[in-house]
Amino acid sequence: MRRLRGPRREPGPRRRLFGSVRSRAALAATLVVAVALLAAGTAVLLSLRAGLLDQAGTRAERTAREVATELAAGRTYGQLSLDDDDRPVQVVTEDGSLVAASEDLERISGTPTTAVRPARGGGGTEAGDDSDSDSGHSGHGGSGHGSGSDDPPELGEIDDADFFDGSATIDGDAADYRFAAVPVEVRGRGELTVYAGAPLDAEQSAVNTALTGMLTGFPLLLGVVAGVTWLVTRRALRPVEGIRREMAAITASEDLSRRVPVPGTHDEIARLARATNETLAALETSVERQRRFVADASHELRSPIASLRTQLEVGAAHPGLLDVDGAVQDTVRLQRLAADLLLLARLDAGERPVADARVDLAALAREEAAGRDGVRVTVRTESAEVAGSRGQWARVVANVLDNAQRHARSAVEVTVRGEGGRVVVAVADDGDGVPEADRERIFERFVRLDAARSRDDGGAGLGLAIARDVAVRHGGTLTVGTAPAGGALFELRLCRAQAHAAEGPG
After folding, report:
1. What does DSSP assign to residue 213?
2. Distance CA 142, CA 178 (A)
3. What is the SS3 string spanning 176-208?
4. b/e map of 152-171 (b: 16 or more CB within 10 Å)?
5. Half-sphere exposure of 451 (CA within 13 A, CB side)
6. What pairs with residue 424 in β-bridges?
């Protein structure tokens, strides 16, 4: 049962918006900058607040120490300097009783006691405290009154301050404060603690101003970052769009001779354009080679097929005139050409050589050289094993020998020898040789240098091309030079089977 497919859905606006590199780059840059600004802004605000709190704490500690110094000097609670309008001050005994406070203090929170007025009577009153203080001074000679002593009063011990936050209302104005608690040991009164506060209005105002500036400036900065990233990315990717348009045009026109534009920069896009052009050039060469191969193969197949058809048609009309031997030769030629084309197709498809099989090239050369007519073939060999397919190596040796036999005057010499970890198969003839300018061209497909040679004698021009392709696939080389007798010298160089197994093909 066929599955019905619905209509293709077009990408939505959101997918189109974030489907481009420019949009994603701008979004990513904006997010990164936003996170960085958020972290930096938070750090700045925290640092600013900590610094302002330290300043407020310093002011509060200074006020508390001033009051604690007065207490340590022997002043009574009523003589303390507590008339600062904007700084709440409390003096608390060890048992938590309030014995002195700022005059206009109406409410306080955050300190151990919320009382704003000293308790009257009982151990902590101002009247009793004054009398106790006076008597204490006369008894100990701390103030110099009553005793007539000239010795200075002993100062009490003031400890380090502690800090905390709270709030207070002074003369109807409520505000947040940074409090400092300074303990002081006063003789005759025990341990007292002075709580003094410094307003946090400046700190809160500065933090709010900085926060407002960040909330106003950050969106503008993010917008600038997004816009600049968009424009820079668009400019940077403009060559990519040119490459895309040209590739689309090449695909539509199927014209592989066209090339994409290469920008004048030295960045990744320029390297991409050059790599694309190299790929197009290789593809053009491959397609052209394939077209030429198909054309040449069709041309080569046309002749034996036409000859075979003519002979069969003549034989059908006149059985006595049928050339059976010629028909067999054309059939064999067609068979060999089809086999050559099939082998070339397999090699072009990347067929991997058989690395586990071992072939003795010396024995193979003797087998291929035996029974050849027309010229004298001399074989001098020593045992030499190589890895690969026996059928393909037999085709290589046979093709090189066929070429030498066609061009030799009277003799062909085959030599198989070892050179260290390599095997060299040399085939030399006493013919006219190969001109130096054509020594690479003869390995191309369907190339025959002797234009006057008949097709039946010269073959299709695929033998040497197949031989070199097989040699290269097995990690070897096939070259042509000049033989001692003046003819052509073909040398096939391969790794021995042990070395080949260790190194691998190629």
Report:
1. H
2. 34
3. EEEEEEEEEEECCCEEEEEEEEEECHHHHHHHH
4. ebebbebeebeeeebbbbbe
5. 0
6. 417, 493
CA dist., res. 196 & res. 111, Å (int): 10
CB 197 within 8 Å of CB 168:
yes
Kindly report the pTM of this predicted structure.
Answer: 0.48
The H-or-E segment that residue 466 falls in is helix 463-473
- Exposed (0-12), middle (13-18) or buried (19+): which is 320, by Cβ within 10 Å? exposed
The predicted structure's pLDDT at residue 353: 67
* pLDDT 10s digits, 214-247: 888 888 888 888 888 888 888 887 888 888 888 8
Q: How far is CA 434 from CA 44, 443, 458, 464, in A?
A: 84, 12, 15, 13
Q: β-strand 488-495 against 422-429: which pairing, if any?
A: antiparallel
Q: Give me the helix-helix angle, 21-72 and 201-253, nearest 10°.
A: 170
Instruction: State the angle between helix axes of 361-369 and 390-407 in degrees (0 to 180), rounded to the nearest 10.
Output: 40
* Residue 387 dihedral angles phi and psi, to the nearest 5°: -90, 150
pLDDT for res 147: 37
Give me the residue spans of the domains in the chain.
15-253, 256-351, 354-503
Question: Sorting pLDDT into bands at 50, 70 and 90, what band is 291?
Answer: confident
CATH of domain 354-503: 3.30.565.10
What are the residues facing 426 on neighbouring strands? 415, 491
Residue type at 292 in one-letter notation = R
CA angle 112/118/122 to nearest 5° reads 105
Dist CA 260 CA 277 (whole Å) = 6
Assess contact for 98 and 81: CB atoms under 8 A. Answer: no
Give Cα 338 to chain centroid, integer Å. 49
Q: Cα separation of 70 and 49, whole Å?
A: 32
Alpha carbon distances (Å) from 82 to 61, 102, 200, 292, 477: 14, 5, 19, 109, 107
C-alpha–C-alpha distance, residues 354 and 11, integer Å: 50
CA-CA distance, 264 to 247, in Å (whole number)? 19
Q: Of 3.40.50.1970, 1.10.287.130, 2.40.30.20, 3.40.50.920, which CATH number belongs to 256-351?
A: 1.10.287.130
